[in-house]
Design goal:
- By secondary structure, this protein is an alpha+beta fold.
- It contains five helices and eight strands.
- Strands 3-2-1-4-5-8-7-6 form an eight-stranded mixed beta sheet, sandwiched between helices.
- Strand 7 and strand 8 form a beta hairpin.
- Helix 2 runs parallel beside helix 3.
- The longest helix has 16 residues.
- The chain is globular.
- It starts with 5 loop residues before the first helix and ends with a helix.
- The relative contact order is 0.18.
């Protein structure tokens, strides 16, 4: 599921873009996972293959962390837009499979349909794990659209051509909006609702924020 070169990855992405997906709805009281990868301080440029990496995954339920895992590894490739799976796929799959059990839905710092081949890493990771996914990023990859209003919950569409592929979402008033991407088995409305549910006080969804904190703490413990 994780190709080792760009040509093979593009072929997988094209298959995923056209794959049938069973619709999904998060169950009442369902668990939400988040995953994050951080790298040594001081790296410049896009990073390269075999960069040290600290990965973390958390599972939250009803606002509490109920499981968390840390793992270390190295990147598989340098960063290239649209090809994030080459760099991070195996690292994140490894840490997520070390959880006691999978969450009902997973949040990842990656795009979904906002992608040159309509299958960003949020889609790919969900397909690899068999998990519904939501992507959350600071900016779009390819799509375009105006920012939303300044009130919490305001949204605006992000388009590629005639297709709405993601949305700007204002998670807190007068704070820069996030881009929310439907990933594997979720539609845009479900993704937006989940992000707003998990950002009661802060800009970043809590599962991602907790995973980021855990990964950075592991990096610090390693002396970096």
């Amino acid at each position: 599921m994780w190709p080792s070169d760009a040509e093979a990855l593009r072929a997988v992405q094209q298959e995923l873009a056209g794959a049938d997906r069973e619709p999904w709805t998060i169950p009442a009281g369902g668990s939400v996972g988040g995953c994050w990868v951080c790298f040594p301080r001081g790296l410049t440029g896009p990073g390269g293959a075999s960069d040290p990496a600290w990965a973390a995954a958390v599972v939250m339920q009803e606002g509490r962390v109920v499981d968390d895992v840390i793992s270390t590894g190295v990147t598989g490739a340098s960063y290239e837009p649209g090809l994030l799976a080459l760099r991070l796929g195996p690292i994140l799959e490894k840490v997520l499979r070390e959880l006691r059990g999978p969450p009902d839905v997973l949040m990842v710092d990656a795009t979904g349909r906002d992608h040159p081949r309509s299958a960003g890493f949020a889609v790919h990771l969900g397909a690899a794990l068999g998990l519904p996914t939501v992507g959350v990023t600071h900016r779009p990859l390819v799509a375009e659209g105006d920012w939303p209003g300044d009130r919490r919950g305001d949204t605006s569409a992000l388009w590629i051509g005639d297709d709405v592929v993601a949305a700007w979402v204002r998670t807190q008033p007068e704070v820069r909006p996030l881009v929310v991407h439907p990933g594997w088995r979720l539609d845009l409305q479900q993704a937006v609702e989940l992000v707003l549910t998990t950002t009661p006080l802060r800009r970043t969804p809590e599962p991602l924020r907790q995973a980021r904190h855990l990964a950075r703490r592991a990096r610090a413990a390693a002396g970096d």
